[in-house]
Predict the structure.
Amino acid sequence: MNKSLLAGMFLCFALLAHVSFAAEVKNCGLKRYASIDLVAGRNGYLLVPVTIESTRAYMVLNMAGPFSVLADSAAKNLSLKASSMPNGLQVRADGRPIQKVVVATRFMLGELKFKSANFLVTAGERFTADQADAPVVGFLGMDVFNQFDIELDVAHQKMNLFSQDHCKGHAVYWSAKYDAVPIRSGSLGEFYFPMELEGKKLETTLATSNRVTTLHTDATRALFNFDNHSPDVQTETDETGRSTSQYRAMKLSGDGIEVINARISLVDSPPNTSCHLSSHLGAASYEGCYGMHPLALGQNVLSKLHLYIATKEKLLYFTPANASE
């Protein structure tokens, strides 16, 4: 499944997960709500342990996606009653329309209990990444995390959830030095930020469900004058000799970060899309569609970083993965 959700006609619609915790007095320190050990699944997925209606499962961490999604078979196995999407709302995943939504009245993220959680339901999704101890049932998007700050350490497969209520600049506790970039919110509620690739700024997402960093070929043609058919692009083939993917090594940089020869996978935009490349606040972006951004940082780059996403403060803090006090 495409790890981001595209909307054809998007009306005001939000699927929010509600969590119960006591109100607190604001102070400059961090208050941690949960510490979650991520699991490296098959196909390169980062898996988050969850409990849905008292059933243990895993969900693929998808921080580039605004909504959480359950496979239709999983929703049925969990006996979750499906309801139709609101009138006029058209959401698609991999070109297939999503027509149902379910509500889990009992949902836990690690050991953190939620009052309820809503999930879009996609038909035809089949996971081959099931773990031995529990099935993989869907994708966990940013709607579940909208009440938290998120610390993500891909290299050590760790995710911590903190209160949003802290003083500005008091997020990075593991290092005295850090950098930060502003977070922007898209039309679907997804967040993105500017990043430089070979000196060109592009809107960028955290594609935690991708092994490698991806870049759309319409952006490579317009900004860098190459695409997946250019002679200097590396092509991988499978055992049958069929071409499977194209890569190019490029320099990725931003405030306080520089990755030389980052492996970038070139992908075509979805067919029949209304997206067209544009520019917003000095960075390459898309217009005419929802939820798409040219550059998506995969685990090959994210594993080199230690991140803190201050969702209320609208800042993404980061250090090298091995940074310490």
Q: What stands out?
A: Residues 217 and 268 are 5 Å apart (CA to CA). The chain is about 5% helix and 45% strand.
